[in-house]
Amino acid sequence: MKLTLKLKTTFKYLQFWNSLFNLTSKELNILTVLVDINEKTQDPNLCSNSNKKLAAKELNFKDPNTLNNYVKKFKDKGALKLKGDNYILHNLLSNKDEMEVRIIR
User: Fold this and answer.
1) What's the CA gap between 47 and 8, in Å, rounded?
2) How does pLDDT run along the chain (105 residues), one tens digit per residue?
3) Residue 70 and residue 27 in contact, taking contact as beta carbons nearer than 8 Å
4) d(CA 98, CA 9)
5) Residues contacting 18, CB < 8 A, separation 6+
6) What residues contact residue 59 under an 8 Å CB cut-off, 6+ apart?
7) Which pTM does this prediction carry?
8) Domain that holds residue 35
9) Alpha carbon of residue 47 to chain centroid
10) How many domains does the chain have?
């Protein structure tokens, strides 16, 4: 049996895979904002200072450095990886266009 899922928002896509990363609702929301911002900026570092400033503004955080705590949690939980000096999404989270799920019994 094969299913094709079209998860139309970043949040829904991240939420689908979240059982592997165990992010809280707040962490899921914050990561969604960072991913959506990074899609616009195309910064090689998902958690660059400029991306964090934009995310903090959207999330109504007074200090963008507050996001550093979440970046560490995302890394610890495996949702983000450090590649050189850049934070990137785990491979499962980086392609949200269309997904095919195969169920084997």
Assistant:
1) 23
2) 776 777 788 898 899 899 999 999 999 999 999 999 999 999 999 999 999 999 999 999 999 999 999 999 999 999 999 999 999 999 888 766 666 667 776
3) yes
4) 11
5) 28
6) 29, 30, 33
7) 0.88
8) 2-102
9) 10
10) 1
